[in-house]
């Protein structure tokens, strides 16, 4: 039972460190679910084309979330952190 709690706390810790990872995962599953539901009304589109479009949309969302996450971490590392260090030096 304690291993489940360890895994849950590890996931929550990772989610707090990188909030865009769970967002990317949620977006991926949402897009796949939506496109699977939409598959009923695909008309005369081939199944393989529909699946390729679904995969591209889901991967595009994940790559976008990763890019935003990297930009956010760079912002924190190179913009916010130096300002806090300068503020701390100015107060001394």
TrEMBL record:
Spans through the membrane: 20-36, 56-75
GO CC, one annotated term: mitochondrial membrane
Subcellular location: Mitochondrion membrane
HIG1 domain boundaries: 1-84
Chief place of localization: mitochondrion
Keyword Thylakoid (UniProt): no
Pfam annotation, one family: HIG_1_N
GO biological process per UniProt: mitochondrial respirasome assembly
Signal peptide: none
Keyword annotations: Membrane, Mitochondrion, Transmembrane, Transmembrane helix
Protein name: HIG1 domain-containing protein
Organism (species): Gasterosteus aculeatus aculeatus
The organism's taxonomic lineage, starting at the top: Eukaryota, Metazoa, Chordata, Craniata, Vertebrata
């Amino acid at each position: 039972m304690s291993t489940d709690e360890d895994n849950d706390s590890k996931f929550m810790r990772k989610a707090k460190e990188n909030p865009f990872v769970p967002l990317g995962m949620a977006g991926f599953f949402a897009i796949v679910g939506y496109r699977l539901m939409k598959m009923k009304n695909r008309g005369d589109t081939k199944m393989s084309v529909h699946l390729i479009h679904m995969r591209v949309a889901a991967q595009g969302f994940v790559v976008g979330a990763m890019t935003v996450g990297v930009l956010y971490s760079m912002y924190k590392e190179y913009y916010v952190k130096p300002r806090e260090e300068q503020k701390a030096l100015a107060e001394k």
